[in-house]
């Protein structure tokens, strides 16, 4: 059986895919910013001298990392309104779920970056009279952040792909839009091929930039050690 490929319908329906791509980009950007902010707080908790804060941070990270992102999204969209009586829109549910999801993984990147800063830097900051917060703000985080950048780039790519989970609650991102077009036109192969090409066109340059940045930072680190 020979399949006859036909991409002609996408010339007319292409704007719908581009609108889905814009919704995906908006969801990705908001969830990324919120996830990085959550991750910073939780990452600091994870390295705090306070045992209580460390327990809270560890509980959050391990709970989110060990449950599927799809389950988290469905629970927030369907179960939370039953418990609270407040129904959120697909957009709000997707942002909250992906932000929490991204925050857990970002927290581990922050934790590893903070732990990589030499003990002598902490001691020097303490000798200057800095408390824990000021040690973080002025000494530790500025050094740790440059080491975290490549890992954050990789997590950003993973989060972009995770936005497709929002299609399960009918948020009009790229995958959901492609699904509607495929069902309407009876052309799933062409539609999902176009979807693949769109994701590749967006994420491949970001992946390449992350690799180049990692190499550049690696060279700088080598020069500093020498």
Shape: flat
Give the averaged pLDDT, no decimals: 90
- Unreliable stretches (pLDDT < 50, length at least 5) are 222-226
What's the architecture of the domain at 25-176 in CATH terms?
Answer: Orthogonal Bundle
**C-alpha Rg (nearest Å):** 21 Å
Main beta sheet strand tally, sense and closure = none
User: Span between N and C termini?
Assistant: 64 Å
**SSE succession:** HHHHHHHH
Number of strands: 0
Query: Which structural class should the secondary elements be placed in?
Result: mainly alpha
Beta-strand portion reads under 5%
Class of the domain at 25-176, according to the CATH hierarchy?
Mainly Alpha
Count of DSSP H/I helices: 8
CATH superfamily of the domain at 25-176: MetI-like
As for the CATH topology of the domain at 25-176, it is: MetI-like fold
Binned, the helix content reads: over 70%
């Amino acid at each position: 059986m020979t399949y006859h490929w036909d991409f002609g319908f996408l010339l007319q329906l292409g704007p719908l895919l581009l609108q889905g791509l814009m919704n995906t980009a908006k969801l990705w950007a908001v969830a990324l910013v919120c996830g990085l902010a959550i991750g910073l707080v939780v990452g600091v908790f994870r390295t705090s001298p306070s045992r209580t804060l460390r327990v809270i941070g560890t509980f959050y990270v391990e709970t989110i990392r060990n449950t599927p992102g799809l389950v988290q999204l469905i629970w927030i969209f369907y179960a939370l309104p039953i418990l609270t009586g407040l129904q959120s829109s697909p957009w709000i549910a997707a942002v909250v779920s992906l932000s929490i999801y991204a925050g857990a993984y970002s927290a581990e990147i922050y934790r590893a970056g903070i732990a990589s800063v030499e003990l002598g830097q902490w001691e020097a900051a303490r000798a200057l009279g800095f408390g824990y917060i000021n040690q973080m703000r002025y000494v530790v985080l500025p050094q740790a952040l440059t080491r975290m950048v490549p890992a954050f780039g990789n997590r950003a790519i993973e989060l972009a792909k995770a936005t497709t989970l929002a299609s399960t609650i009918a948020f009009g991102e790229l995958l959901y839009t492609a699904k509607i077009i495929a069902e309407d036109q009876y052309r799933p192969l062409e539609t999902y091929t176009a979807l693949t090409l769109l994701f590749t066109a967006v994420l491949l340059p970001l992946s390449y930039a992350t690799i180049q940045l990692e190499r550049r930072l690696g060279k700088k680190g080598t020069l500093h050690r020498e």
